[in-house]
Design brief:
Blueprint lengths: L1 H17 L14 H18 L7 H14 L4 H12 L7 H11 L7 H11 L3 H12 L8 H22 L4 E5 L10 E6 L5 E6 L18 E8 L2 E2 L3 E2 L9 E7 L5 E7 L5 E8 L2 E2 L3 E2 L12 E4 L5 E6 L13 E8 L4 E7 L10 E6 L5 E6 L9 E6 L10 E2 L13 E3 L5 E6 L9 E7 L12 E6 L2 E5 L13 E10 L9 E6 L4 E7 L6 E7 L2 E8 L6 E7 L6 E4 L2 E3 L7 E3 L17 H13 L4 E7 L6 H21 L7 E7 L7 H5 L4 H11 L1 E8 L1
Parallel strand pairs: 25-31, 25-32, 34-35
Antiparallel strand pairs: 1-22, 2-3, 3-4, 4-5, 4-6, 7-8, 8-9, 9-10, 9-11, 12-13, 13-14, 14-15, 16-17, 17-18, 18-19, 20-21, 21-22, 23-24, 25-28, 26-27, 26-29, 29-30, 33-36, 34-36
Helix pairs in contact: 2-3, 3-4, 4-5, 5-6, 6-7, 7-8
């Protein structure tokens, strides 16, 4: 019995020593004086950095605390401080083990230890455990003096409940690290892209920054890098250099859909603001600061263009009254004043989108109506989560939707961009499989999961007591893609094929209004425009000294994402040149001009006014269906209707001729049409034959 009592006492004191707090007392380490002295020195250095003003330097303090912890791993206060350092770093998921150990060593180590156990548990997605710790912490607070802390803790509890709900039905995605061509051992974040994803730009803090400097926190200055896609893979990223990158901090903000303009955040004097750079070929202009209505005395960290470049969505912490102390960050929208060449008419997005908490990291999809943004409000599961809201036909905004788990995590998820196809997206994240600190990841949406069809499995008897199943391959899961199209190509000279800088207009033919205006690149001639589904579009290309070129696109409302490549060869204003007027419309079997034709006719009127010496012939053409005489009369009357319009606009009748050719001059012959297999191809061929043209007959 005596031996048993001795054994129990030994076990008790052994257990107690394991769970007992060990102070940094030299009397406890008499046989390790030198090691103790070094550990205390590390502890003091860490404490100095933790007490650094104006705010603690957690990252710098951590190595000192870890060195001290190697000597004495059972000090509650030290474990708590290591947990704090991890919690305020990119290694947040490591914080929990240190907070829990600190609590086991000494439950009274800190009055807020349960709160921090809750934070660590939440970041580890241990929702119930986090809720329990938060509730325990709330019970220690005074409802009269600690109301703000109570509200903060209650919000974390609600975030954990949101996390439990979202994890029940995770989003079906692949999340892939973008690899060594893009990521490094240093932070990469804030990726931006053009509409088709052929070019990406991002921010990184690497040692070869333009300023070749580091900040007060030990990180290298921010610089902007870029990569182009080739063979479905992004090539090795390269520093974009001057004039975009300066000796200070330079960070990506936004890229126009066609990649011709970039917004960057530049902080080289301690007063960061948003600047704009314009590209010509492969060269970027020196960034120019946006006007004061955007760059206010407050902080504007994020912005994005609308696809038509007529709106600028941006984030600011400016007070609602316009004066006073900064508030939480909200999303605003500005309109472009083409005459003054400034952004103006600033409006704050409604409470549907903005919350009493911070919003940031905005991205407007090329469809022109889906706004992605990050928020600490709404149904977040912790920190910033990514949401989207859709602008309705009445200009209201839908209730924001959390994009889901595992895209959103209990940590901050801020930078998120989506390719025009709606299937591929990119984000910044810190994950355990990363290459260093924050990395860039590609997200592939897989669509809704297809339910198994159990009744299609054939059960085959293979032997006594053995059942085998024949595998049945189910139909491919269709992924709902973005309902828009991308039109892109090169504007060239018809004869030399040299690139041409041209003005491009996009017209909503139903509303008979220009909805976007932009230029092709002056060096490469490249252009790109996104066309949301459900509309009939007219596209007009104009350049000085050339005849204008028009295209017509009808994109059904329910169509999936498509890309069209259309190189436009502009013809000089020369005798004999012929242009098809693709945006002149007539009702079936009628020759009265429809209202949608007005923009095209006005372009023709301007061409004649700009070139007062030219004479033209307007010609009408039909397909081969119908009698020859009927088609001849119809085409004749349609050509005449165009001439009558021009005369009404002040063009001299002596400069105009008209002729109806009926089916005599087809673009696609009946023999060629007969060889086409698909009915739609045949109809498209007939459509190309039904046209109105003009020809320069003298100059």
């Amino acid at each position: 019995m005596k031996n048993l009592n001795i054994l129990l006492a030994f076990l008790f004191f052994s257990f107690a020593s394991i769970a007992q707090n060990v102070e940094f007392d030299k009397n406890l380490f008499k046989d390790k004086k030198d090691e103790f002295k070094a550990a205390v020195k590390n502890l003091d250095e860490g404490n100095k950095l933790l007490d650094y003003a104006p705010f603690p330097l957690y990252k710098q303090a951590l190595p000192f605390f870890e060195a001290a912890n190697e000597f004495n791993p059972n000090n509650a206060d030290l474990n708590f401080k290591i947990g704090l350092c991890h919690l305020n770093s990119n290694m947040k998921f490591k914080a929990l083990e240190y907070f829990e150990k600190a609590y086991k060593l000494q439950p009274t180590v800190n009055t807020e230890i349960q709160y921090y156990i809750g934070r660590g548990s939440q970041l580890s997605q241990q929702w119930d455990k986090a809720i329990k710790a938060y509730e325990a912490f709330k019970n220690t607070l005074n409802t009269k003096t600690d109301m703000e802390r109570i509200m903060e803790t209650s919000k974390h509890i609600e975030e954990c409940r949101n996390g439990k709900k979202l994890m029940v039905k995770p989003v079906r995605v692949w999340i892939d690290n973008m690899g060594k061509n893009i990521n490094s051992q240093y932070p990469e974040y804030g990726m931006i892209m053009n509409a088709d994803g052929s070019e990406i730009y991002f921010t990184s803090r690497r040692p070869n920054s333009a300023g070749n400097s580091s900040d007060d926190f030990g990180g290298y200055f921010e610089d902007i890098y870029m990569s182009e896609e080739a063979n479905k893979e992004y090539q090795a990223a390269k520093n974009v250099g001057e004039p975009i990158n300066t000796k200070g901090h330079d960070a990506t903000v936004a890229l126009s859909p066609d990649g011709s303009k970039m917004l960057v955040y530049i902080d080289d004097k301690g007063d960061g603001n948003i600047y704009e750079s314009v590209r010509k070929g492969s060269e970027w202009s020196k960034p120019k600061k946006l006007n004061s209505e955007i760059c206010s005395p407050y902080h504007e960290p994020s912005a994005w263009y609308s696809p038509d470049m007529r709106k600028l969505y941006f984030v600011s912490d400016r007070p609602l009254s316009g004066k006073g102390a900064p508030k939480d960050k909200d999303i605003y929208v500005a309109s472009w004043d083409a005459k003054k060449e400034i952004w103006t008419n600033i409006e704050r997005l409604p409470e549907t989108v903005n919350t009493p908490y911070d919003e940031d990291g905005i991205f407007m999809h090329p469809d022109g109506k889906t706004l992605y943004f990050s928020s600490k409000g709404h149904s977040t599961i912790g920190g910033y989560d990514i949401f989207y809201s859709v602008r309705q036909d009445d200009n209201s905004w839908s209730t924001p939707v959390n994009i889901g788990y595992p895209i959103n995590t209990p940590d901050d998820d801020v930078f998120f961009v989506v390719a025009a196809n709606g299937k591929d997206a990119y984000m910044t994240s810190f994950r355990e499989d990363g290459m260093g600190e924050k990395d860039l990841y590609k997200i592939t949406f897989l669509g809704e999961e297809k339910q198994p069809m159990l009744n299609t499995e054939d059960i085959l008897l293979a032997g006594k007591g053995v059942t085998m199943r024949e595998k049945v391959i189910e139909p491919k899961i269709e992924i709902k893609r973005s309902s828009l199209s991308l039109l892109k190509g090169i504007i060239r000279d018809n004869k030399t094929k040299a690139p041409v800088m041209a003005a491009i207009e996009v017209i909503d033919n139903e509303k008979n209004e220009i909805i976007a205006e932009f230029n092709s690149d002056p060096v490469t001639g490249k252009y790109m425009v996104s066309l949301p589904a459900g509309k009939n579009y007219g596209i007009a290309v104009k350049a000085e000294g050339y005849l204008f070129h028009s295209e017509n696109f009808d994109i059904p409302k329910e169509s999936d994402y498509q890309e069209y490549e259309k190189n436009v060869d502009l013809k000089k204003v020369e005798v004999g040149e012929v242009i098809v007027l693709r945006n002149i419309f007539f009702d079936l079997n009628k020759y009265s001009l429809r209202p949608e034709s007005q923009n095209e006719l006005d372009r023709l009127t301007k061409l004649l006014n700009d070139n007062p010496s030219i004479r033209i012939q307007i010609s009408g053409h039909t397909d081969s269906r119908g009698s020859d005489s009927y088609n001849k009369d119809l085409s004749h009357n349609r050509a005449k209707a165009v001439v009558d319009y021009l005369i009404d606009k002040g063009i001299s009748s002596g400069r105009l001729e008209y002729q109806g050719y009926g089916e005599e001059q087809p673009i696609v012959t009946d023999t060629e049409i007969a060889k086409l297999r698909l009915p739609q191809d045949k109809e498209d061929a007939h459509q190309s034959n039904r046209r109105t043209e003009f020809k320069i007959i003298s100059k």
